[in-house]
């Protein structure tokens, strides 16, 4: 399942009147709080998680609305590069009403966040219940990046939640088992 994360973005206007967006939508080794239905947890994308990632055919959208025409697409109007901080993006927006509006909103600071959709295999991440942290070690594919209206609220996919919910359920099961043992011990003392 696809997952979505948030990062920052900036706008530049070039001398030849191009509408350019640049940013780093995926940051390495930077803890992020992810809110899920069962609670929140920390997530870190480990340096090297993008080394063999499929970055072909990535589109740029607004708010993950894939029903709209993309604002840019690799490799012609959007370039992705692995930098020292993470995945760097440079997108040339079209001179359409929507392209100009997005560029202006980013330039003014009205829109300042990015999000991205990606997939991770079961062995591409692990969850540590003690620290309540999910570490992503291998991202398979980045599907799209989006300029988003509400970057403060990251959304995760069912896959991420289900992996962590499994661990939570195991812990809860263990706690239930311990409670049953204590109840049985108390009952034995009364008999």
Automatic annotation (TrEMBL):
What NCBIfam families does the entry give? Answer: proheadase_HK97
Q: Which Pfam families match?
A: Peptidase_S78 (PF04586)
**Transmembrane parts of this sequence:** none
Does the keyword field hold Transmembrane?
no
One GO BP: proteolysis
The molecule here is called HK97 family phage prohead protease
Which superkingdom is the protein from?
A: Bacteria
UniProt keyword annotations, A-Z: Hydrolase, Protease, Viral release from host cell
Molecular function terms from GO: peptidase activity
Q: Where is the Prohead serine protease domain?
A: 8-167
Gene source species: Nosocomiicoccus massiliensis
Enumerate the InterPro entries for this protein.
Answer: Peptidase_S78_dom, Prohead_protease
């Amino acid at each position: 399942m696809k997952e979505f994360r948030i990062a920052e973005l900036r706008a530049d206007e070039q001398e030849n009147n191009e509408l350019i967006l640049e940013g780093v939508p995926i940051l390495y080794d930077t803890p992020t709080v992810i809110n899920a239905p069962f609670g929140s947890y920390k997530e870190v994308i480990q340096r090297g998680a993008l080394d063999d990632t499929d970055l072909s055919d990535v589109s740029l959208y607004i708010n993950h609305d894939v029903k709209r025409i993309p604002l840019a697409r690799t490799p012609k109007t959007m370039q992705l590069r692995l930098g020292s901080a993470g995945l760097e993006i440079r997108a040339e927006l079209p001179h359409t009403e929507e392209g100009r509006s997005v560029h202006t909103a980013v330039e003014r600071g009205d829109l300042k966040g990015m999000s991205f959709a990606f997939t991770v295999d079961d062995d591409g991440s692990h969850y540590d219940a003690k620290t309540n942290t999910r570490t992503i070690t291998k991202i398979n594919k980045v599907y799209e990046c989006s300029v988003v209206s509400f970057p403060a609220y990251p959304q995760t996919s069912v896959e991420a939640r289900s992996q962590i919910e499994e661990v939570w359920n195991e812990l809860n099961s263990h706690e239930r088992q311990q409670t049953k043992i204590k109840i049985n011990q108390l009952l034995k003392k009364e008999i």
